[in-house]
Design brief:
The complex is a heterodimer of chains A (498) and B (181). The mean pLDDT of chain A is 90. Chain A is built from 22 helices and 2 strands. Chain A is mainly alpha-helical and 498 residues long. The radius of gyration of chain A is 22 Å and the shape is globular. Chain B is α+β, with helices and mostly antiparallel strands. Helices cover 29% and strands 33% of the residues of chain B. Chain B has 5 helices and 8 strands. Chain B is elongated, with a radius of gyration of 23 Å. Chain B starts with a helix and ends with a helix. The N terminus of chain B is likely disordered. Classes of the chains: A mainly alpha (498), B alpha+beta (181). At the A-B interface, helix 3 and helix 15 of A face strand 2, strand 3, strand 7 and helix 5 of B.
Chain lengths: 498, 181
């Protein structure tokens, strides 16, 4: 029997949703300042409208503040996060829609959802003539989403029961005992990489690529955010190919790798890399990248697309890494990528499906789940081969020796299977709309793995049904299902609960 | 009217003097080069469009992005309709052929970029440059120099935004006052 949620639960959910709205209202300051500096007065009004809408919603829910003793329950936290990832992209879409670069509100919402979920699929028209403030906002959605909107709120507002919110945003690792200090550490790591990354990219942009200083800074910020938050939006329509610079690509690859590391791994790296190298997650990720790269190189070598090894290595490894870290930067066009075909194409698609590390900004199944799934399969095979009464106690190393309990194994398999189901669902919808199997599968995995590489299916003229499907895939994948189920359960209980 | 002016500019750009192999250069669109690089790779081509983004001054020439989409005529910010993604190609122009003063700045939201016709050899996945795909320019003809786009001033959304912020501020202040009371 479903129990109808108490009115206080609903009030609590709306109240915390309102808190998060204040963060969105504040985040609008970034493009607002840029609009003022650049003298972009129309966008200035659009961003004020977005900020005002978020602030109004925040203020309207202020009066729902719960009493001190009321602590947020786990399920309520999940519902807050699931709703956050719907409402925030909706508000973030306001300036996109008003900019005129989208034919309808759905396109603007798609772009916003793609940004906040750090996916990077784009349906924006005429990116190359974007106002600077719109470019900055487009990149900032990835920064907010990659860091975690809720995490941003946790850094600003302290309070009871916030652990539920933290976990609901698909983060299951705390570096420090308190969530708030963990949130601060995450911001510190991001800031460190941001300062170094933006500086190095700016230096390359200014001195080597000959950009104007201000433009070099815009590109540096945009590419840092796109890479470190594994989003993949770029200020120009040709993505990373625009720069035609190997040093720029190298720095971007470092940032993509840093972005896909879990924040726990960052902490251990700072203390010394020995432990992290023993972790199952690290080993799985390393093995997967090496295997994927090898297959990709063999695949590309069998075609006559690139005639020399340096080109194969430069183009191939960047795209493999871009796919594996679920970033989505590309230095070749979608049609070029599709022409890679066979092994190379399969390697990229598989890398997108597997994704990066847990508790990071990347999407996909994630390395730890992949490693544990392989362990479960190996143990199952062992059980069938060993004598009947043999006892196997599967263990793994992840920041210490741990036992692979049946409950954990089940949970890992369920989430992994749900990801596969998501990939298949998107593929089937693509097929229904008449796209070839290869293209439909690639684009579906890209959307559901929050990657952003495209073979051209995603574009401003794509079918509405497919667009809504990809939009939902991005949302579901970012929440890693649990928060989604909680929201569905909450809605169902509200309607039919007793 | 704008389309007519664009066509005239294209015509003007297309009449640039051509010498040597550029005489046989085929008139192409960027989509043809992108969708069929095998056919066009290594061939002399001529393409007309707007230079956008940045001029990248390097040791081996000036690298530019040339777009020949509909936004070259009317960008979204200048009243054009959102009809899809940008379409263009990267190009390397010899430094001695590149006169930024004559061209004006590259196209951006507040500036219509120069309209040029580039003639040169198209390279697809060029192994000499780590697999780059680009147009190696021999000749450049300017059809139209860059010009500023008239950007509209603040519109009604500014008032809406300010109104919402003021309302939110008032509500938050009243809420704090009530809690304090």
């Amino acid at each position: 029997m479903l129990v109808k949620p108490h009115r206080d639960d609903a009030k609590l959910i709306v109240y915390y949703l309102g808190r998060i709205m204040w963060v969105v209202a504040g985040a609008a300051l970034i493009p607002i300042i840029v609009a003022i500096v650049e003298g972009e007065w129309q966008p200035f009004g659009w961003f004020l409208t977005m900020s005002g809408t978020a602030a109004f919603l925040g203020a309207a829910t202020d009066r729902l503040k719960p009493p001190q003793k009321q602590v947020m329950r786990w399920g309520d936290g999940m519902v807050v996060v699931a709703l956050t990832w719907l409402v925030v992209p909706l508000i973030g879409a306001i300036p996109f829609f008003l900019s005129g670069h989208f034919s309808d509100i759905l396109d603007a919402l798609f772009e916003s959802m793609s940004g906040f979920t750090a996916t990077g699929l784009s349906v924006m028209s005429d990116i190359d003539h974007n106002p600077t403030s719109i470019t900055i906002w487009r990149q900032t959605t990835q920064f907010l989403g990659g860091q975690g909107i809720v995490l941003a709120a946790l850094s600003v507002f302290a309070g009871g029961g916030l652990l539920a919110l933290y976990h609901a945003e698909a983060r299951d690792e705390r570096v420090f005992p308190s969530v708030r200090s963990t949130a601060r550490f995450i911001w510190l790591v991001s800031l460190w990489h941001g300062v170094i990354g933006v500086t190095v990219l700016w230096l390359i942009g200014y001195f080597r690529l000959g950009f104007e200083p201000g433009r070099a800074l815009l590109h540096a910020y945009a590419i840092f955010v796109g890479a470190f938050d594994t989003g993949g939006f770029s200020p120009m329509s040709t993505s990373l190919a625009y720069y035609r610079s190997f040093p720029y690509e190298l720095v971007t690859m470092w940032l993509m790798l840093a972005g896909t590391l879990s924040f726990g791994a960052h902490y251990h790296l700072w203390r010394g890399p020995r432990n992290i190298l023993r972790n199952l997650e690290t080993k799985t990720m390393a093995a997967s990248v090496i295997l994927g790269t090898t297959i990709l190189f063999i695949g590309l070598a069998r075609t006559d697309i690139f005639v020399d090894t340096p080109s194969v290595v430069r183009r191939g490894f960047l795209h493999l890494l871009s796919a594996h870290t679920s970033t989505g930067f590309a230095t070749v066009t979608g049609s070029d990528l599709a022409s890679w075909g066979g092994l190379a194409f399969a390697a990229i698609a598989t890398a997108m499906a597997l994704g990066g590390m847990g508790s990071s900004t990347s999407g996909g199944v994630k390395a730890l789940r992949v490693g544990l799934t392989i362990k479960v399969i190996v143990n199952t095979v062992k059980e069938t081969l060993l004598p009947e009464h043999s006892v196997i106690r599967p263990r793994y190393y992840q920041n210490g020796n741990r036992q692979l309990s049946p409950r954990l194994a089940q949970s890992v398999l369920v989430v992994s299977l749900l990801f596969v189901a998501l990939y298949l669902f998107g593929t089937v919808v693509g097929l229904v709309y008449g796209f070839p199997l290869q293209d439909a599968m690639f684009e579906s995995v890209s959307a559901a793995g929050t990657v952003g590489l495209s073979v051209g299916v995603t574009n401003p003229a794509m079918p509405i049904g497919l667009q809504i499907t990809y939009l939902l895939l991005m949302w579901a994948s970012r929440l890693e299902f649990i928060a989604l189920f909680s929201l569905a359960g909450f809605a169902l209980a509200t309607v039919i609960g007793e | 009217m704008r389309t007519a002016a664009f066509a005239a500019a294209l015509l003007l750009a297309g009449t640039a003097p051509a010498t040597g192999s550029t005489n046989e250069a085929a008139e192409v669109r960027a989509t043809e080069l992108i969708s069929d690089p095998e056919t066009w790779g290594g061939r002399a081509v001529r393409i007309t469009g707007e230079l956008v983004g940045d001029y990248s001054y390097r040791d081996d020439g000036v690298w530019v992005q040339l777009n020949d989409d509909s936004y070259a005529d009317a960008a979204v910010g200048a009243g054009g309709d959102p009809v899809g993604a940008n379409i263009g190609i990267g190009a390397r122009i010899p430094t001695d052929q590149f006169d930024a003063g004559l061209l004006g700045g590259p196209g951006r939201h507040d500036r219509r970029g120069p309209l040029v016709t580039l003639t040169g050899t198209f390279f697809s996945n060029d192994s000499r440059l780590g697999g780059e795909t680009y147009l190696d320019v021999d000749e450049m003809a300017i059809g139209r120099s860059a010009s500023p786009v008239t950007i509209a001033g603040p519109d009604g959304w500014l008032a809406v935004g300010l109104g919402l912020l003021a309302l939110a501020g008032l509500m938050a202040w009243r809420s704090r006052k009530r809690v304090a009371g």
